[in-house]
Amino acid sequence: MTSDSILLSLLIWLPIAGGVLVSIAGGANANRSRWLALAVSVLVFAVSIPLLTGYDAGAGTLQFQESHVWIAAIGANYHLGADGISIALILLTTFTTILVVLGAWDAVHDKVNQYMAAFLVLEGLMIGVFAAMDALLFYVFFEGMLIPMFVIIGIWGGPRRVYATLKFFLYTFFGSIFMLIGLIYLYLHAHSWELSQLTALHLSATQQAWLFFAFLLGFAIKVPMWPVHTWLPDAHVEAPTGGSVILAAIMLKIGGYGFLRFSLPIVPDACQQFAWLIIALSIIAILYVGYVALVQEDMKKLIAYSSVAHMGFVTLGLFIAFALMRVSGDTQAAYLGVQGSMVQMISHGFVSGAMFTCVGVLYERMHTRMIADYGGVVNTMPWFAAFWVLFSMANCGLPGTSGFVGEFMVILASFAMNPWIAAGAAFTLIIGAAYTLWLVKRVIWGEVTNDHVAKLRDINPREALVLGLFAAGVLILGVWPEPLTHLMDASVKHIVDQLLVVKS
Amino acid sequence: MSLNPTMLLLIALAPLAGALIAGLLRNPIGRVGAHSVTIAGVGVSCVLSFYVLYQLVWGGAPTFNQNVYTWFQVGDFSTHIGFLIDRLTALMMVVVTFVSLMVHIYTIGYMADDPGYQRFFSYIALFTFSMLMLVMANNFLQLFFGWEAVGLVSYLLIGFWFKKPSAIFANLKAFLVNRVGDFGFILGIAGVLYFFHTLDYATVFAHADSLNGKTLDILGATPWAAATVICLCLFVGAMGKSAQVPLHVWLPDSMEGPTPISALIHAATMVTAGIFMVARMSPLFVLSETALSSVLVIGATTAFFTGLIGIVQNDIKRVIAYSTLSQLGYMTAALGASAFAAGIFHLMTHAFFKALLFLGAGSVIIAMHHEQDMRYMGGLRRYMPITWITMWIGTLALVGMPGFAGFFSKDAIIEAVHESQMGAASTYAYACVLLGVFVTAFYSFRLLYLTFHGKERFVIDHGKPHGHGDHGHHQPGHLAHAPHESPWVVTVPLILLAIPSVVIGWMTVGAILHGNYFGTAISGAAEHGGDAFAGPFATMLAGFTAPPFWLAFAGFAVATYIYLFNPALADRAKKALHPLWSLLDHKYWFDELYQAVFARGGIALGRGLWKGGDTGVIDNILIDSTSAGVGRIAATVRWVQSGYLYTYAFAMILGLVVLLGGLWWVVRV
Fold first, then answer.
1. Beta-strand relationship, B459-460 and B64-74
2. How many CB atoms lie within 10 A of CB B221?
3. How do residues A331-354 score in pLDDT, each as one tens digit?
4. N or C: which end of chain A has fewer CB within 10 A?
5. Could you tell me where the beta strands, DSSP code E, fall in A376-485?
6. Alpha carbons A442 and B351: distance in angstroms, whole number
7. Is the ipTM value over 0.85, yes or no?
């Protein structure tokens, strides 16, 4: 068993150990818990930097691999590894966790040590998902990360938190069961849980179709795709700010990542066969959910629906690749679609995380998320308003912000498949701007509408730091996405080239 | 000698630096600091832009085309930020930076009392940067970048007075209508990438002919010519930005923004981006007769019908706004008639005289204490002679008085439309642009007379207190003290813009329309090269006998008779022609239609999908029934709420383990 590096193990277990430490050592001392948690999250981020600097992006292969026998009886290995795509997502996770810890500084007063601990444990488990190269290990992390999230929503959530947690649980559990059955089925054929072994497996068209739908249920709910998205608005509304940020910024990405790692390489023929379905659902997500977002009265719900619409680009970009590669042989456009979908995941991490943080900033002051309770916030919180407008522009995909890059790539790529699909996707330019800027108009602009708004204080330096770091991510990625695309390029190519292999 | 890349970077980045300093350090640097640093930035850009033009035209510098950095690379496809500097770009750079500089200086006076002074300077400098990135782009991606960035600044500036409900309605409307255009634009760009495999201008234009014979299945059984689809999509983008019917509705409302930006963004520069874009894409547009005739018809329609609305407006800025719409229609019609050079020529002359007219109107508005209704003006020529004279100059340029700037460019457009060979489209367009001349003269002189001539229709209440706010309204038509001429920071830009409004046409008509100024920068630029051109003087003389002059004269005569000698006639005409007046007063009901169909319709659709689809079908029927019924969930919730959450969490893990184990066992067997 090999062990190139223990970096990934460190990234998984360090935050989990840190979480345990915070929950014990922090005790009832809220401040000690905060500082400890911050120290751990910064340390983890620092440890994740060598992934970036030490990665040979030109090769695009799995690197930093580590493999040990885990459960010999069933051939499961503790196999970790990361390619450009995993590294991008791991860095997004370590970066966002710092911001969540900072963001919760004054917002959470109850059981601070456990709150912080839950996020650190969650961080470790999510990194595990992105690093696992063994299907069983992946599944354990995939399910395990739900537990801290349930606890976060269930304990620190809003009044209907139990309903939301249950809905979240039932939905995701329903999906993962089918995924697990699919994985077990694969194991029985391959006698291995190794992803590379599962990918090499020859499967008939029928087998692939069954597996495709098993994976689809697992990942579509996570993304979430229309029509299995209705758990997300409820979960967001009840989740505390940090929970919403992690949910939107990282956990939704695991659905997209799952499609990329499992569905695409393992059952390419079925993906090809059912690409139309995913493409149709993605376009519905962009259009239908866009309209639903328009009429929301609760800011968090609006942003949650907007997340669903934006994630539509992720699934669209992934699946047009099939039509492009196999039908027209346009590999270039297929690269562009998949790459666009990955860039969209990273960008959405920044943008949605920032938007939910902004809502949290307002909620801490006003204790309401209802749009109607606001109006004229710019008069009392000008710096906050500047950040909000920036993130809103990113949310409607303005060039110069990260929100533009992925959407642009996916729209360009889908034109190569069919101009009408490109038109459906491009409609987000209109509807996305409509729901986002109408929200801005009602919350930010205008005269001060009531006494509560009149008494608002502008953001403090800590909040400015959190929003400023999000803004840096949004702007740097928007002005110069090349480093990110370079990081993922060879890995994306590698995955797209696998699509051409006909297995059945 | 070729152009220096560092200098080009400096041209683009100097205004950005000014914007960032003024915006982020607004308090430390104060008002003087903010206007100094932005004016310095834009000033540097302006001087260097003139130098670039000089080098290209007289210094023998070749076209500059170079990438600055790679924006992204995916496989073999890469996108860049880079500059293409040819004579078309240089002309745009000079126009943009010069008008911007004038507006910056003017703003010192216009916004003197405004609490958002630094923010305003930051925005207009940011606008200058964005507009420069747009015109200097060497690829479609950067063009779209600049395109959206100017849209953003326009949004921020229309809503600059963010407490005004009308302003924050107008900026949302402007952004959304522009986004409808951008929807087409981005599809056009996608089409370009699909057929050319690059977004680089030079490569695309060099291989433009390869589009011939390529088709796309869009609608119906017959495939569409690729060039037609791409050009129509791109043109939809131009229609949004350059406010062509039916996407024109945002521009009049954009007058909610402060007047300096109406001059800079919503008259001289940003709204002409669509014209610039089509001229830049001329190698593609010449491939599609269908696209060109659509451009021609839409441009001509805009030119005539929006001009008509200008006749019934009473707000001084709105008259000029409708005039801008109409003139943009002229430019678009020129593009449709393949007279790309004439379109750009009119873009340039219009930038000077329309900026002048807007700034002049702003000067009037300052004098009238932010009263914009011309019914409460009149006789102002006695109080503000510089504004009065410069407004006259601007008006003469606008109506096409032979010899003035607008004459050369507008006549060239009318001539080109006249000569275009597109059957009924050409006939219709020619009628529109010709009648538009009468309309233009009528509303322009009406504005002059109502504002500067005739009786004073305002009352001066000496000694009474009044509000000095931007929009702090008092009794209409009542002023606390007599109006007076604006300070020099306002009048100097007026004078500096009046000069080119007189001479720029005369000076450049030979080169631009007959001297192959644009060379290969735009297609069909040299088409008038063979004409007998006997110099600007002869052109001017010939202008006096041509139909446009007599139509303009008729407009002038009618306006003079009504508004100087027989004001009661206007009211009688309004009553006699009430249905027509009502149609114009309601701007052909476009706003009401869009509000009902798109705004209210969109919200109704959203509600239906949310309550019917998400809550009704998905949650209530699919989810809750498959998960063993609503009652069961409610019961579980009650149980859980009675216990501890930790118990619940552990129960969940336990359940998971049991389930996994069970499944495992089942599958093994």
1. unpaired
2. 5
3. 888 899 999 999 999 999 999 999
4. N
5. none
6. 35
7. yes
